[in-house]
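Margin note: ligand = zinc ion.
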Amino acid sequence: MQTHNLGYPRIGSRRELKKAAELYWAGKSPLSALLETGQQLRRQHWALQQEAGISLIPCNDFSFYDQVLDTLLMSGAIPQRYHALTALNDTDLYFAMARGYQQNGHDITAMEMTKWFDTNYHYIVPEFTANQTFQLRSTKAADEFKEATALGFKAKPVLTGPVTFLLSGKEKEQGFHRLDLLPRLLPVYFELLAQLHAAGATYIQFDEPCLSLDLDEAARTAITHAYQQIATQFPQLQIILASYFECYGRNLATVLQLPIHTLHLDLVRCPSQLDDILQTDFAASHKHLSLGVVDGRNIWKNDFAQSLAFINKAKAALGADRIWIAPSCSLLHAPCDLSLEKDDTALPPSIKQWLSFAKQKIEEVATLQQLATSAHPEQDARYRDNQLALRSRDTSPLIHDQAVKARQRAITDKDCRRNSAFETRKPRQQQALQLPLYPTTTIGSFPQTAEVRQWRAQLKKGELDQQQYDALIEKETVAAIRWQEEIGIDVLVHGEFERNDMVEYFGEKLNGFAFTQHGWVQSYGSRCVKPPIIFGDVSRSEPMTIAWSRFAQSLTNKPVKGMLTGPVTILQWSFVRNDQPRSVTCEQIALAIRDEATDLEKAGIGIIQIDEPAIREGLPLRQENRAAYLEWAVRCFAIAASGVQDQTQIHTHMCYSEFNDIIRHIADMDADVITIECSRSQMELLDAFADFRYPNEIGPGVYDIHSPRVPSKEEMVALMKKASAVIPAAQLWVNPDCGLKTRHWDETKKALSAMVAAAKELR
Ligand code: GLN
Ligand code: ZN
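Resulting structure:
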């Protein structure tokens, strides 16, 4: 019985890679320094995996930006617009594709980025043309294998599989399907495999997570074709095929027929899969199974009893020799090292004992192998400690709050519905608010200047006390209110200057959340996020936003929107407890937000926005699971939004543009007003709302806040005219695409003044 790992986080436990990359991009350090950091991190990560006792250690899981972009460079599929950058070395070309290039008279946009399956990691989307050619351009995979081997590690190159690579891209012109390119792409893989083989590689891990999607026949045929060809050309190589994040499902039959050495199973996301496979004639083959028992996506300690049950079952059917033990997926999605968390007040030892980050997960994999091959694992101290820690979770008063559980269980359908239907609410709200046609508003945040961020850092360090900090935030809020009044915005916001992050801010105030100091996870490129940990029943001890909203409202006669983050978004952007269904945790959060909304109403706030930018990204990968998710997600939003009176106007906000497949559920959320991202798609996405005859009010974004560019009044008028051609004007609001947190004041002021002028012209 052996152990292997699918991939290790590359950012570094102190975010060394982020820092080195950003210094290089800023021109403050040479390329050699960045390359050196990469080498150090690889060596360090290989060493810690070897020391833990992992038999086969991944290489080429490292990346300076993204593994899909690495594959793109490997295959030479450089999009046309970068061909002008002939003077650049390949590292700079690589970063130009990732980040765009505005130097030396060039102005070339970056490649698009999108979420990697259902994770919060964003990859670079390959672009393909009909006459796309490929040639082996980067030998990174072979170089890193040689590097690992030279250092004495038993390494296994990890490659993004050809089918997942093609499917993750986009056709940039009509008349072909990207899978048609497979025969042209495969020779590049062959050339690379030949190099790897020559360098002494025996095992190759192909990541094909596309197998966790609903594939059509053509994609399944592509998988069969690719791996048959690889096996024919390289009978000496042992191919490990890895998919994760879902069951193989209907792709299982295809996968079982492949001439591969090892099949990896994500037993965390799909625990039933082992039985499914053992029911086939898999045992009669000579293939191996990789049991992904340690959760690569979450931060909870492994349950050794449960994992050993899987391992023993597989061992009984196949024999120990045919079993690998592994994490469920690459550890890219986990924070690096729990032992760096030394602040007992931020993360109490009582909670820490339930957690495990990447380094600890590696140790769990190795320990499981030792326990599985010992005669009496239950007598092993490591096993007993593990079970003791987990059992303490079952009953811990830190986690279990009977009052919260009882309230969640007592939620009725009536709690998920406003008192009256929208037709009844609308006139009541209009009477209370007296808004003009085409009312103007913004999405919530105003620029978080370096100063504002510095105040918060000073507060943390104790250089400012709470009073001094609050006084500064007050000053900023007053200025924002005055300025919005001056330019004539109809529905104001307080600006969110007091918030670091829209989830962290609420997490810090809610019970049941814990925070780490170093729990960073790569989001894209050098960007990392530090998700809160929801460890226990969630409740609100005291109001979270009332003071700031009340203060802002006291400054003006115009309505100031209360600003809350929705339950699904809070859930989605946190590490979530695994001892109860996500839907239950989400309902608990929803109740806390509901209490906050009703308190805002009592404090005289007439409009409350509940942001749900993450509702869509929670969609399960498989169609068959989507309806159930959407049902509870919509219900949670409704719980949060339905405690208020008819005349209180509920807004929601979402910042993406694909609504076609979920529009019915968006309508079921029954927000009085929804603001959405729209300007980049030139209002096209409004078609979904128009076709559906969306009954409530809509604010299609007219100002692309992702760019420093200031849109003109005429542009915004034109966009709104497009909108009013498909949606009655009485239903429309005028607003930017999203919050203005990342923008500067000068461009924000110009753009919003033009936006108000546009609304006036439309009226
Ligand atoms: N209210 C938040 C803001 O304006 C919304 C952010 C978001 O949609 N991601 O910053
Ligand atoms: Zn947004």
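The two ends are 73 Å apart (CA to CA).
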